[in-house]
């Protein structure tokens, strides 16, 4: 059964900065999706999770997205087209995650760890060991634990170093 069939969206600009670039978007959901939120937290590496009211905050596609049981909020969008693209992607992801929930361990962690795959895809994947680790995979695992960061791989391109830095900025490491 499809969890989320439809939604209605509202687009608005900041009232205090009417000339500012970018729009915000709220989508009111056609069904209650609270049960999928812990699974989304696992799948997308949520930057924050709260049980009451239930919500998960995600950093994806360079946006900060908060998914509640009955609505979705997305900030700093370029325009309505980008809002529609992200909402469509979210709807598909929510339904796909719900369908596969028996394969996923739900996470109720308030502050999730970075997703290893998201780090690994930015690395050169040459396993050159210059970082002091045996493989890029091991280095990525050390980054998810907060032991290493974007400065630890000397072969990382400037662009990917910036991307990794931006991605890691959404997490807290104790
Ligand atoms: S230095 Fe970079 S490329 Fe080399 S193994 Fe470490 S993470 Fe991989």
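^ Assign residues to that structure.
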């Amino acid at each position: 059964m499809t969890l989320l069939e439809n939604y209605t969206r509202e687009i608005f600009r900041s009232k205090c900065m009417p000339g500012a670039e970018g729009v915000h978007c709220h989508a009111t959901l056609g069904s209650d999706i609270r049960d999928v939120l812990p699974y989304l937290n696992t799948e997308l590496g949520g930057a924050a999770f709260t049980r009451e009211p239930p919500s998960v905050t995600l950093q994806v596609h360079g946006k900060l997205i908060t998914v509640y049981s009955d609505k979705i909020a997305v900030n700093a969008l370029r325009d309505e087209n980008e809002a529609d693209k992200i909402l469509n992607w979210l709807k598909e992801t929510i339904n796909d995650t719900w369908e596969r929930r028996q394969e996923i361990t739900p996470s109720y962690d308030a502050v999730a760890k970075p997703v290893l795959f998201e780090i690994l895809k930015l690395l050169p994947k040459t396993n050159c060991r210059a970082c002091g680790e045996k493989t890029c995979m091991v280095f990525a695992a050390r980054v998810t634990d907060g032991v290493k960061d974007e400065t630890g791989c000397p072969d990382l391109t400037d662009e990917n170093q910036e991307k990794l830095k931006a991605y890691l900025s959404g997490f807290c490491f104790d």
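The pocket of iron/sulfur cluster is lined by residues 123-124, 126-131, 133, 136, 139, 153-155 (CB under 6 Å).
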